[in-house]
Amino acid sequence: MAYDEGKAARVTHFIECLKHTKGEFHGKPFHLLPWQKKIIQDVFGTVREEDPSMRQFTTAYIEIPKKQGKSELGAAIALNMLVNDDEWKAEVYSCASDRQQAAIVFDVAVDMVKQSPALLKRIKIIPSMKRMVYQPTGSIYQVLSSEVATKHGLNVSACIFDELHTQPTRALYDVMTQGSGDARKQPLWFLLTTAGTDRNSICWEIHQKALDILEGRKADQRFYPVIFGLPDDADWTSEENWYKANPSIGHTITIDKVRDAFHKAQETPADENMFRQLRLNQWVKQSIRWMPMDKWDECGGVVNPYDLEGRVCYAGLDLSSTSDLTTFVLVFPPLDEVESYTVLPFFWLPEETLPLRVRRDHVMYDQWERQGFILTTEGNVVHYGFIEKFICDLGERFNIREIAYDRWNATMMVQQLEDDGFMMVPFGQGFKDMSPPTKELMRIVLERKLNHGGHPVLRWNMDNAFVRTDPAGNLKIDKEKSTEKVDGAIALVMALDRAMKNQNGSGSVYDDRGFLILEG
Question: Directed axis angle between helix 5-16 and helix 34-45, to 10°?
């Protein structure tokens, strides 16, 4: 990579001729902060060694907490790409999850234009369409939102994605990045976002790519990553760490404002999550979850089904409804004290409802189906006959001793599986039946005595799980409190219960050592 100081200076000079638009900074020159200047210089000054007329980077991913000046920077870059990039009939777009969010950057750019007589003379603003036209070159700057049906056929020269973490699906991102800039010499995608909460989103995917590049695990010469935030295991109460995550403290936000937010964060778990996400740029769950997912991820060894053939195992079956996720989880008890419990999960959805579910639930069912982690049955309801045959085929491969199922959701399929020769065990969903294996699941995860193979759908279910407790300290996974699917987690708990109670042909594991009490 080479560096062209003149190209970098041209952009920084243009931006610093603009003026701020909000609060006490309104009307003051846009003096780039050190972190902003470095990004601008790197993105616009780094050029390709084989062709120094072209920028090295086509995508910049900037992840940073709120109140650091993201919108102002995004607006300045959009205007630069509109009028200062030597692109005839440029097409610059502001994208976000909805039109109102997308208009935030655009409206800042409008205020910047109105404060610049030179720009105002050359740019026509069309407020009703959220569009600007730079008349000397016929270039446009337009707001777009996540309704993607009309977005095909664009000839993108620059795209400013604001708050990528709020995208309901990856559809708009794919439309804007897959081939839409091929006719341009050097298109630029500028992704600006705060950390999100959904680790099945397009933003998490790009975040992981950025992290892999920053930490040397991957390389992409066209991708420029910047992440201001704290690692999950960093001390979020340390004021020193706040400065690391917030490069604009003392400029766009005072340390007192961060302190006030911190004091509020100490009041409730929900406020803590909000502080850590928005102020420290940490990826947290929207609500407090039961399972510590870093510990769960440590249990993700390799699971080879062929190595398990012929082994004794126990199953949990969650039938749910005919239109919903159906789950069957096999648990293989350890053969010795060194081995872990091994988990082999299976998930089904109706084939015809898959696209609808992706749009409605904002979950990557389609991607998981392509990867083989979700199976589909024909039609718009789950075909229990297909699943019954599948389980029978599994019974040919594995020694399935028992299948636990929710006694309140029994169907003809349970009777049919009994007729097929399986031992079907009704399993109550109350505290009495669910609490012991739920606590045991936590114990073996913390002790790394579980191997789930890193199955992404099961991980998603575990990450969604809330638990309810009773006055005696018993707990169970609460479907009502859990806003997303937890069927796999419940099936795992049921299968684990049967595996432990039948281990070594003896009675319950609880008979030997009593119940485990987890301090929390």
Answer: 130
Identify residue 29 by its one-letter amino acid code: P
Helix axes 412-419, 384-397, angle to 10 degrees: 30
Copy the structure tokens of residue 493: 């708990």
Return d(Cα 53, Cα 253) in angstroms, integer: 38
Cα separations (Å) of 264 from 232, 273, 288, 451?
20, 11, 16, 39
d(CA 493, CA 18): 59
The DSSP H or E segment spanning 308 is helix 305-308
Q: Which residue has the tokens 């293989």?
A: 332
Q: What is the pTM of this model?
A: 0.62
**Cβ burial 351-384 (10 Å sphere, 16+ → b, else e):** bebbeebbeeeebbbeebbeeebbbbbeeeebbb
Mean pLDDT of the chain: 89
Under a CB-based contact definition with an 8 Å cutoff, are residues 458 and 346 in contact? no
Task: Decide if 453 contacts 344 (C-beta within 8 A).
Answer: yes
User: How do residues 28-70 score in pLDDT, each as one tens digit?
Assistant: 999 999 999 999 999 999 999 999 999 999 999 999 999 999 9
Q: Of 498, 376, 394, 382, whose CA–CA distance to 436 is shortest?
A: 498
